What does this fold into?
Amino acid sequence: MDDAIKLKDVTRSELFTLLDGISGEKDLVIDPQLIKVLDHFTNFSTLKKHGTVKMLRLDDTHIDSPTKNRVYLMRPRPHLCQTVISQVRGEKKKKESHNYYLFAVPRMTQACNNLLELHGLVEEIQVSDWPLDLIPLDKDLLSLELPAAFSDFYVAGDQHDVRTVAQSLITLQSLYGKIPQVHGIGRYSAMVKDLYQILDEDQRSGSSFTYDSGVPRIDQLILLDRGCDWVTPLCAPTTYEGLLDDVFGIQNGFVEFGKNVTGKEKPVRLLLNSSSSVYADIRSRHFSAVHPFLSDLIKQLQVGYDVSGVLSAALISAQRHFQGIMRACVTRTLHCSLLCTCSCIAHESIVSLNAAR
It folds into this structure.
């Protein structure tokens, strides 16, 4: 089984186990930063099979729902925990009756436990952990998707994500075997390495634990602090993928386009990974070479489509093939539109900069 699929299956199964442990129907209130992350593992249709009747966004608004059970799925950030506390206390004052559950991702923190205790809600809200760490964004890309980690480490001095990173290395070993050598460069990387070794020793001492007996597929692992390389994030991207991220922003493997790109009122969200042969072909190309490449492919696809119109009556089996061709053509046309939008934005920026001078 593909390792990314295996990791997804295990993580998905753990979430379903938590949901199935709550009898009856339930509302699922999700941390906004986890909505796109959740799309990598499941969808609403599947969640309905596990008792979920509504999926709601966690914010300050009052939740008007008669459903008895409510599940908060969130990263244990103090401001989000405070939002949950405000909602629960407000409903208690209104005599609304609900059973409250909090699934912390990847685990509950002492700071949030202290908040629940301070407001007397330790008994009211049942807390469980959904141990989500590595997220397979692509077949060759695993990410923790912790957008606040940088500011936590370097601004707030909050080090609680050190354990998250260390635990993710244990997950990595479960997929690829024991990692013989781990190197840490920088203060936080050294902390991660030390904690990883402790967790690894604790796990290996467990009587039921065994590593993959095969040859390890990772010879060395190098941990590098962001603080050791401040320059790279400031470099201008020259690939198509880098351009998309610079102009539109890629979050959790998804990019969202507005009316200026699609011509539609409702935003269009596109998953960017190698499952799309179109994107796999162009993601690493220099952005100046993408438009000519796509134009040539669209012409080739159009020829294929014209031929299919002649042969479709005689060769029904070819229909599916040419439907795939048309889907590819639509995708390539979208990417051409994206390039045009990026070029316009870049041109406007240059004009504004020259005018300022």
In short: The longest strand covers residues 52-57. Confidence is low (pLDDT under 50) at residues 310-326.
